[in-house]
Amino acid sequence: MSAFSAVKSLSTPTITTRSTPSSNPKPSFPFPFPSPASAGAGSLRHSAAIRLNSSSPSPLRAVSSHVLSDEQRVTSPSNHDKALVTRREALDLYEDMALGRSFEDMCAQMYYRGKMFGFVHLYNGQEAVSTGFIRLLQPGDAVVSTYRDHVHALSKGVPARAVMAELFGKTTGCCRGQGGSMHMFSAPHNFLGGFAFIGEGIPVATGAAFSSRYRHEVLKEASPSGGLDVTLAFFGDGTCNNGQFFECLNMAQLWKLPIVFVVENNLWAIGMSHLRATSDPVIWKKGPAFGMPGVPVDGMDVLKVREVAKEAIERARSGEGPTLVECETYRFRGHSLADPDELRKPDEKAHYTARDPILALKKYILEHDLASESELKGIEKKVDDVIEDAVEFADASPFPPRSQLLENVFADPKGFGVGPDGKYRCEDPKFTEGTAQV
Amino acid sequence: MAAALQTAGTLTASSNLVINSERFRFGSLLRSPAGMKGTILVVKSDGRHTVGFNAGLRGANLIPNAVAAKTEDSAKSTYSKPGHEILLFEALREGLEEEMDRDPRVCVIGEDVGHYGGSYKVTKGLANKYGDLRVLDTPIAENSFTGMGIGAAMTGLRPVVEGMNMGFLLLAFNQISNNCGMLHYTSGGQFTIPIVIRGPGGVGRQLGAEHSQRLESYFQSIPGLQMVACSTPYNSKGLMKAAIRSENPVVLFEHVLLYNLKERIPDEDYICCLEEAEMVRVGEHVTILTYSRMRYHVMQAAKTLVNKGYDPEVVDIRSLKPFDLYTIGNSVKKTHRVLIVEECMRTGGIGASLRAAIIDNFWDYLDAPIMCLSSQDVPTPYAGSLEEQTVVQPAQIVAAVEQLCR
């Protein structure tokens, strides 16, 4: 199949916000998301049918998750849902989310026990986004994340041991202890980081996507995926006000790069509410402004995320260009382990805790008879074992020796230059000890 | 390889281009002492205005006819072909083109590099030859397209990112500092960033403050970055090629006023070592360390100094980070007096770091305090008379040497 073989060409969807009568009256939060129009809402195909309401911005309203609501009887098999996930897929999704959750909980424990330091940003509550997207990727596809990157790394296949050891600052960590929580990298898994400054990963992701297109068109290399290697860029709502975001939307669409921009809108950038920071808080609308589809999705529902992700990734892979996906999600913990999290209201937190993606999937699996309770418990136990093992491994691993200090400053250590004796510095025997003067 | 350039009557010595083949063995780590002895690299640049050179140039301030160095050993010419005359910007293009031919992963990213051919014509014709994807015209988004270059470098390509003017790269500082310099380290060595970031900088002719910046001082602290400054067609091509082949991120500083220098360069393939300095003129009395355009002011001052009986040794440091402490040190050990002449600002400039490095390593060899002539800590004014005052002029260099050698 050629990379550019016919795939449904998706017209730029025009979407309006609509109120959906909900039989579950929920407190009205100022969430700027449209209610999904149907079970498959959020998919690009469906959204094309809805017209844009060009009048004044509609009042913000709560979103109800159709997975949990009584409107849709979950037990009556919806062909759409059944087709999306097999038992095996469901268990893979469940395990991945459980792994992410347990890992982050363990991080919190270890932090308070003094095993890891600095800024640690946990992903609890957002697992559906990571799992929903990344489990669809092929090995040649790349992921770029931000400082909230532990779970993205795990979903991409980076072993829990490597991530935990990195957090402990041990030399066996995925970055040899040199990166830390905010700089997770793994070349074998095409996990391109791990960036501390928001927004700075998006151009890197755009570059990886450019590389993918270049390899295909200039180097004439065929990817095992059958199309273009895709890059996913994950970032938050705060980043969407940053220049790099807009510059990259422009360039990605301009050159039809195989990239998906995934916004994890958890409504808060540390203590800054998205609504206080953004003139037009509806982020997915900004995609069409650059000529690419913009799609909102319920980020607490892994199946919905997965459906949207499938289309967006397929678009990118076939050469149709980028997509902007906005996931409504929430972090159950503070911005980081140092954040007292005093500004978010308890009822907002309660609303989202009730939409815990892992519990939702569990319920879905059980109601569709995809697996038994004990099987799921077995998965949870397995995950716990993996985490325990990761902690033990990290604990037992050595700290980086002094000699490691200078090793990775340059890929080519000749970059340290020539010393007074005429030899390259890196040939100095003291260099590896880290005691040489450079 | 005989005459590099002939300029009727004005040059005082023979024009030799001497090359030591040792230098150009790419990848050799050790510099053999024997090899060093014969490596007097004499490069002359014709300061006369040639076709295409901007007529408004104040010739008195710019390119003097460089004084040829005294050659120590017999010319060790290993080049049998006659070489070809070339302008500096063409030499850069030649180097770039040769590398793009050699490795299909080399690509160019920047504003107006493609169809326009580059604001200083360094990439002229390349888009026609290699296509729009390999010579990519970007929108005006320095931070993002530099970051894009970094992402491309991480995933297997070898991009050359052009800042239309070096000053524009201030907008890319986030990417250059955080990602370019640091990513290899924070990833534990997993990703390399073989990127070249280049562009014209320096004080031009009344271009105004923002277009007359010297970013070498701003970038020099970034760990993981290498910086080189080219000054002749010969080393421009050589450094461009070496930078592209290097696995490290390299910033190549070109100068707006040097693009039309003409020189005869070898037909054969060659590179210049990124970490080495260039001996311009061998002398005995004082070591003058310089780079980029100031090299020519120094050489002009050298003429005057020679007439006054001084014998300055001039070293073009070329590698701004790291410093070539071997060449510099040998010179200091010989002359015991150091003058640094740079176009950087005084505060926190390359000269400041160089001074510190010399003091740290060669204190015992100094007979006098190190003098450093830098640009004034002033935004470059538009008015020509004021602009002239901000940059080091040959007369100041002469005065400084006289003071040093008292």
- End-to-end gap of chain B: 40 Å
Query: Which stretches of chain B of 5+ consecutive residues score pLDDT under 50?
Result: 1-77
Total helix count of chain A?
15
Extended strand count of chain B: 14
Instruction: Report mean pLDDT of chain B, rounded to a whole number.
Output: 85
Spatial order of the strands forming the largest sheet of chain A: 1-2-3-7-6
Counting DSSP E segments of at least 2 residues, the number of strands of chain A comes to: 7
Q: Structural class given helices, strands, pairing of chain B?
A: alpha/beta
The greatest interface between two protein chains, and residues involved on each side, is:
A-B, 66 and 66 residues
EC number (chain B): 1.2.4.1
Catalytic activity (chain B): N(6)-[(R)-lipoyl]-L-lysyl-[protein] + pyruvate + H(+) = N(6)-[(R)-S(8)-acetyldihydrolipoyl]-L-lysyl-[protein] + CO2
Main location (chain B): plastid
Organism (chain B): Phoenix dactylifera (Date palm)
Structure notes:
Chain A has 438 residues and is of the alpha/beta class. Chain A has 15 helices and 7 strands. In chain A, the strands form 2 sheets. Chain A has a 5-stranded parallel sheet, with helices on both faces. In chain A, strands 4-5 form a two-stranded antiparallel sheet. In chain A, strand 4 (268-269) and strand 5 (272-273) form a beta hairpin. The longest helix of chain A is centred in the N-terminal third of the chain and has 26 residues, at 87-112. Chain A is globular, with a radius of gyration of 23 Å. The model of chain A is unreliable at 1-81 (pLDDT under 50). By secondary structure, chain B is of the alpha/beta class. Helices cover 31% and strands 17% of the residues of chain B. Chain B has 13 helices and 14 strands. In chain B, the strands form 3 sheets. Chain B has a 7-stranded mixed sheet with strand order 3-2-4-5-7-6-12, with helices on both faces. A 5-stranded mixed sheet of chain B has the order 9-11-10-13-14, sandwiched between helices. In chain B, strands 1-8 form a two-stranded antiparallel sheet. In chain B, helix 4 runs parallel beside helix 5 (173-181) and helix 9 crosses helix 13 (394-404). The longest helix of chain B has 15 residues, at 88-102. Chain B is globular and about 60 Å long. The chains are: A alpha/beta (438), B alpha/beta (406). At the A-B interface, helix 7 and helix 8 of A face helix 4, helix 5, helix 6, helix 10 and helix 11 of B.
